[in-house]
Amino acid sequence: MVERIALAVHAYGIAARSLALAASYTRERETFGKPLIANQVVRHRLVEMHRRVAVARSYTHTVAARHVAGESVIAEACLAKQTAIEASSYVCDEAVQLHGGTGYLRGTEVERHYRDARILPIGGGSTEVLTDLAARLLGYTP
After folding, report:
1. Of 34, 80, 88, 135, which is most buried by a Cβ count within 10 Å?
2. Within a 10 A sphere around the Cβ of 110, how many other Cβ atoms?
3. Domain of 56: which CATH number?
4. In the prediction, which pLDDT does 104 show?
């Protein structure tokens, strides 16, 4: 269970860093005489990325606090991992997109986070296995 919480922290951490990189890049990169961030669609993407990171962070912290308090949070740890990993996958994908061609170049930080986010659904129990475990613990099985 602690491993799953740690993976959730790792996942939202990667997402938060990718968001920071994307926000910085869109402020610096100019197209058609203005920074990328001047485009409404870019700002809306950044806001959605922020929302997903914030939700993952908040939920993970709540589950971790409940674990520290001695509660049994096995199902919740599975869900925290899944929530953070989905946020990380989404945010890293968007960050690469916002970086354009440079976001996909091997050796760039945003590209590394994109690759790192992909392994997270496997570690600590695959998403499918953990979802089924959560279903059993939450009483959603016959």
Report:
1. 88
2. 21
3. 1.20.140.10
4. 87
Flag whether 14 is in a domain. Answer: yes
Mean pLDDT over all residues of the chain? 96
HEC readout, the chain: CHHHHHHHHHHHHHHHHHHHHHHHHHHHCEECCEEHHHCHHHHHHHHHHHHHHHHHHHHHHHHHHHHHCCCCCHHHHHHHHHHHHHHHHHHHHHHHHHHHHHHHCCCCHHHHHHHHHHHCCCCCCCHHHHHHHHHHHCCCCC
pLDDT tens-digit series, residues 65-94: 999 999 999 999 999 999 999 999 999 999
Handedness of CA 50, 52, 55, 60 (dihedral sign): negative
Q: What is the pTM of this model?
A: 0.94
